[in-house]
Amino acid sequence: MSSPGLPAHPVRTRGVLVLLATFLLSAPLDAESDPPSIVTLDWTQAETLVALGIAPLGVAQIAAYHDWVGEPRLPESVVDLGLRSQPNLELLASLSPDHILISPMFANLSPRLARIAPVSNLALYMPQGDTWQQIHQLTREIGALVDRDGEAEALIETTENRLEELQDRLPDDPAPLLMVQFMDARHVRVFGDNGLYQAVLERLGLTNAWTGTTNPWGFSLVAIERLAGIEARLVVIEPYPAGVPAELRESGLWQHQASVRDESLITLPPVWSFGALPSARRFAEQLVAALGEATHVDD
Amino acid sequence: MSTTSRQRLSPAAVCLLLGMVCISAAVTHLTAADLGDGLRSLWTVMPGNVESLTLHYSWWPRLGMALLAGGGLALAGVLMQQVLRNPLAAPTTLGVASGANLALMLASLMAPGLLVLGREWVALAGGGGAMALVMALAWQRGLAPVVVVLAGLVVNLYAGALGMALLLFHQEALKGLLIWGAGSLAQNGWGDVAFLSPRVMLGALAAWLLLRPLSVLELDDASARSLGVSLKYLRLGGLGLAVFITGCVVSVVGVVGFIGLAAPNIVRLAGARRLGARLAWSTLLGALMLATTDLLLQHFSGALPTLIPTGATTAALGAPLLLWLIPRLRLGGRQPTASRLEVKRHPRPTRLALGLAMLLSVAVILAVTLGQTADGWFASLEGDVLQWRVPRLIAAAASGVMLAIAGTLIQRITANPMASPEILGISGGSAIALIAAIYLLPAPGNLTLVGIGTLGALTTLAVLVILNHRSGFVPERLLLTGVAITAGVDAVRSIVLAGGDPRGQQIIAWLSGSTYYVDLPSAVIVGVLAVALGLAARPFIRWLDILPLGAATATALGVSVDRARLSLLLLVALLTASATLIVGPLSFVGLLAPHMARLAGFARARDHLLGAALIGALLMVLADWLGRQLLFPQEIPAGLMASLLGGAYFLWGLRRL
C-alpha cells in the first residue's frame, strides 16, 4: 500500500489503515483475492464498480452522485475526492490507490494522475458504434481491471436476462415513446440516438419517437414546441425544476400534447442518463412497470 | 465628434428597412404551410392541425415576446442613457442583467419557493441591487460615463465570478438556469406575453409621463435646477423605471444582450434628437431588432441538436457593433482625472515593503506545510506532499505578481484606478480560444491548451492595437474596447454552457481560475517569466511617474506618449496572457493589488510596482491555500477565491475610491 521508495508519513499510514479497515469491514466481498484498490472520477464507472461488488477507494462528488445517479448507493467507506473536474490530488495521493479510472472528459488530468497510480481512460457513448455493445465492453474492461472478470460476465448476463423478462411483460403493440427531461418550463432534453435510454428501448424492442439529431451524449436540447405533432407517448424523467409543474398547467402548448390530454403521460424517477448497466436495468424496470400500470388503467 | 453622421438615414427609414426584413422573414415562415391558416392561427387553433397548434401556442407568442422584450429593453436603455447622460448605459452594461441572473441562481439553490412565488421579484431585487452597486462605485466620480461603464463591468465580473462558483459545485442543479441566462425566447403558450405586456405598457406610459421632466436632464445640472426640478428624485425615478422594465423582461426571457445599448444609439446616430422621438423610435427599433434576429435564428438553427439562445446571440453580434460604435460616440461628462491617484504617501515605503515581504513569507510557509487528508489536518514537509503543493504555490505567487504589475501599469497609463488587465479583454480573448479548443479537439493535452490560449491572447492584443492605433491609444477608448471584448466572451460562454454538454464542467473549472493544472516544470517557467517581465518594467519607471499627469504634461516633459503607451501595453499583454493561462480570466488581482498598494501609501512608480507585486503574490498565495482548505476535499479555484475575497475588500474601499 505504501508508496515505494519514500518513507510513508506515520499519520498518513494510520489514516490509510483505518480506511482500509472500514473498507474491508463494510464490504464483505468474496475473499478469493484482494481486488486492486481503485478510484474513479466518473460516476458511470463508479456505479459499475459497485455493481461488480467492488467498493471503490474514492469517488468524486459523492453527494452529487447520490443526488443524480442515486442507485446503487456508494458504501460509507468511499472517500470523496472533491470535484470531478478537479479531484483533490493531495488526498488522492494519500489514499495510494493501485489504479485510477477516468473517462475521456478528464483526459487532460491524466499526466498528473499518472504520477499517483496507473491511469485507465475508459470511453463510453462514442458516436461510432453501438451503445449497448459499448456498455458491455466497458463492464468487461472494468471487470478485468479489478480481477472480477467472472462478475462482469455475470452482471451482463443477469442484466440481459432481466431485460428479456421485462420485454415479455410489455403490453402488445406499445406506442412509440418520447423521453424528455425538463430543464425549465420551456425547454427539455429529449433523449435519442447514442444515449442510454435509447439503447434500453432498443433492447426492449420499443420504438423511440425522436429521430432528430443528438449530441455525443445522446440528447438534444429543444424548446417544447418541437415535441408538438410527434405521435408518441411522453415519458418525463424527473426531477422537475422548481415551479415547472405549475407553469406547465398554464401552458397551452403542453396541455395540447396528446399524452397530456389523454393522461397517458408517464413520469419516471430520476435515472442517471449517462449511466451503464445498473442504470440501464433500473430504467428498464421503472419504464416497464409504468407501461404495465398505465395499460391496466386504460382497461 | 459624432455630428458627422448627416441625415443619410432617418430613424423612420431604419425602422422601415428592418420592419420589411422582419415581415418577410415572418411571412416566409408562415407560407411554409398556408399563409391564411398561419394568420388565422394567431387567435385560434384549428382542430387536429398540429401546424396550427405550434403556430398558435409557440410561434406567435414567441414573435410577440420578441417584440415586447426588444421594445422594453430599448426603452429601458433610452431612460438609462438619458438619466446618466451616458450613451453607453444599458441594462447589460450597468450590471442589471447579471445581478438578476445571480439572484435567480441563489434563489433556485437556497429558496426555490421564491421562484414559484414570483421570478420577476427575485430578478428585480438582484438587478436593482447590482445597479445600486454600480452607482455607488461611480458616485464619487460624478457618474462620469466611462467610470459608470467600468463600474458596471466590475460588477458584471463579480456577479459572474459568484455565479461561476455556484455553477462549479451545482452544475446539475443549475442546468436549467444556464439556458435562461443565455436568453431563450421559446414560448409554450400566451402566459408570458400576458404577463409582460401590461408591465411594458405601464413602463411606457410612465416614461411618457416623465417625458418633460426627463428632457430637462439634457441641460447641465445648474440650469436644470433653476427650472425647479428636483434632480435627485427625477434621476431616481427614471432609473427605477428602467430597472423595473428590465427586471420584468429579464425575469421572463432571460439575459438578452445589447438591444438596450444598440437600439437607442442607432436611433441617435440616425438623427433623432429630442427625447420623445428617441423613446418612440428606439422602442420600435429594439422590438424589430430582437424579432428579426429571433426569426432568422429560428430559421437557421432548426436542425441543430442544441439550442442557440437568442439573447446570447444578440450579445455576440452586439460586441462587434459596440466596437464600431465606440469611435462614433460623444462621451461627455467629467473625464477621469489624475488628481484621484494622489493618496497620502507612506514616509518609508521600503520599510512597508519589508513588512509585506515578511507577511508573504509567513503565508508561503503556511501554504507549504499545512494541509488536510481524509482524517483531518496535518503538517508535513515531505517530498510526496510538497510535489503537489510547491508548483501551485509558485504558480499562484507568480501569477499574482504578473497581474499586479500589469494592473499597476495599466492604472498608471490610463490614470484610472478602475482599470485592470481583465478589463482590457486580453484574458477574455484567451478564454474564447480555450473554450473552442476544449470543444473542438477530441482530448486536448495541457500543452496544446497553453499554446491555443496564448494564440487567443495575442489575437486579442492585435485587435486592441489595430482598433486603437489611429486614436493614439486614448485610455478611455482602450478600456471601452476591452468592455466590448469581455461582453463578447460572456456571450460565447453562455451559448456554450446553455447546451448542457457535460464538458461544460471542465470549462467552468478552467474559467474560474485554478492553479490545479500546474506541474513543477511549468511552475518554474511561470516563475522565471514573472521575474523577467517584472524586471522588464524597470526601464519604464520614469514614464510611469509622468504618464498619470496627463498627455499634455507628459509631452511637455519630453515623453513620446504614443510610443510609451504602445510599449507598455505590449508588456501588459504579455503579463496578462501568461497569468491568464494559469488562473483564468476572472481574477480581480490585477485590479486590487495596485489599488491596495496605492492606498497603503506606495506612491512613486517604483514603489507602487514593488508594493503591488508583493500584495498580488500575497493575495494569490492566500487565495490558493484557503481555496484548497475551505470546502475540503472540493477545491475553490484560486482565481475565484481571490475575486471573492477581493470583492469584499473592494466594496469596503468604495468610499475611498
Automatic annotation (TrEMBL), chain A:
Domain Fe/B12 periplasmic-binding: 37-299
One GO term of the biological process aspect: iron coordination entity transport
GO cellular component, one term: outer membrane-bounded periplasmic space
Alphabetically ordered keywords of this record: Ion transport, Iron, Iron transport, Signal, Transport
Localization per record: Cell envelope
Top-level taxon of origin: Bacteria
Keyword Repeat among UniProt keywords: no
InterPro entries: ABC_transptr_periplasmic_BD, Bact_iron-sidero_bind
PANTHER family noted in UniProt: IRON III DICITRATE-BINDING PERIPLASMIC PROTEIN (PTHR30532), IRON(3+)-HYDROXAMATE-BINDING PROTEIN FHUD (PTHR30532:SF1)
Family: Belongs to the bacterial solute-binding protein 8 family.
Name of the protein in question: Iron complex transport system substrate-binding protein
From TrEMBL, chain B:
Predominant place of localization: membrane
Record's keyword annotation contains Cytoplasm: no
Membrane topology: Multi-pass membrane protein
Transmembrane intervals: 59-80, 92-115, 121-139, 146-169, 241-267, 279-300, 306-326, 352-370, 390-410, 422-441, 447-466, 478-496, 516-536, 543-561, 567-593, 605-626, 638-654
Signal peptide interval: 1-25
InterPro entries cross-referenced by the UniProt entry: ABC_BtuC-like, ABC_transptr_permease_BtuC
Location of this chain's protein in the cell: Cell membrane
Keywords in alphabetical order: Cell membrane, Membrane, Signal, Transmembrane, Transmembrane helix, Transport
UniProt-listed GO biological process terms: siderophore-iron import into cell
GO molecular function: transmembrane transporter activity
Listed Pfam families: FecCD
GO cellular component terms attached to this protein's record: plasma membrane
Family in the record: Belongs to the binding-protein-dependent transport system permease family. FecCD subfamily.
PANTHER family assigned: FE(3+) DICITRATE TRANSPORT SYSTEM PERMEASE PROTEIN FECD-RELATED, FERRIC ENTEROBACTIN TRANSPORT SYSTEM PERMEASE PROTEIN
The protein's name: Iron complex transport system permease protein
